[in-house]
Amino acid sequence: YRRLQAKETRLSEFNRTERKAMLGSYTKVLFVRDPFHRLIATFLQGMGISPSFSSFVQEVLDSRKVHEAWKPLVSLCQPCLVQYDYVVMFGFLRQELGHLLRRAGLPAGSLLPELTDSQVQWTYRWLAEQMFSELSAQQKQRLSHFYRWDLAAFPFPSSFLSD
Predict the structure, then answer these.
(1) From which residue to which does any coiled coil extend (predicted)?
(2) DSSP category for residue 161
(3) Strand, helix or coil at 94?
(4) Does the structure show a pLDDT above 60 at 115?
(5) Using the 8-state DSSP alphabet, how is residue 89 labeled?
(6) Which of 65, 77, 64, 59 is nearest to 143 (CA)?
């Protein structure tokens, strides 16, 4: 494709015909994670300078520039533009990655981490409860609004932001 050689060419820069031809030859996999869990991970990785989760969330909500670490998934992965073959949910990685590896003809068992999905889900549920309790009602409402398109596009039934 004519612009494929250029550095960091965005998918949106190709016309519809070019996109369809280019993406048609790939298996497209999208990994998604509850937006609230993404915020928690970003905070724990020290991406903000805030001493508390609540003040970090306030920084995110007040920031004029949206950092990729907490940007809504819909704006990052363009699910309306790209027709993904698989959507893999964080928390079901072992199960879903095993399926993908078997479809690709690879040995699934030896390539997957030992941690079980239920342990991951339980840990994040507990952590999310703790962090969510730190937030004000206004912060909770603003976060739900900020991630409204992610919550509409992907099934996060147990997300605190869905409530």
Answers:
(1) none
(2) G
(3) helix
(4) no
(5) E
(6) 59
Q: Give the tokens for residue 10.
A: 């965005």
**Whole-angstrom distance, CA of residue 160 vs CA of residue 134:** 13
| Torsions phi, psi for 54 (to 5 deg) | -60, -45
Q: Is the pLDDT of residue 65 over 90?
A: no
Q: Provide CB contacts within 8 A for 104, sequence distance 6+.
A: none
Is 108 within 8 Å of 101 (Cβ atoms)? yes
Q: Is the pTM of this model over 0.85?
A: no
Beta bridge partners of 89: 32
**CA pseudo-torsion sign 78, 79, 81, 86:** positive
> Closest Cα to residue 36, out of 63, 64, 72?
72
Identify the residue whose tokens are 């070019």. 18
Both tokens of residue 29?
């996999």
DSSP-derived secondary structure for 42-60: HHHTT-S--SSHHHHHHHH
Burial label for 107, CB within 10 Å (0-12, 13-18, 19+), is: exposed
What span, in angstroms and rounded, lies between the C-alpha atoms of 88 and 97?
8
**Choice between 29 and 53, residue whose per-residue pLDDT is larger:** 53
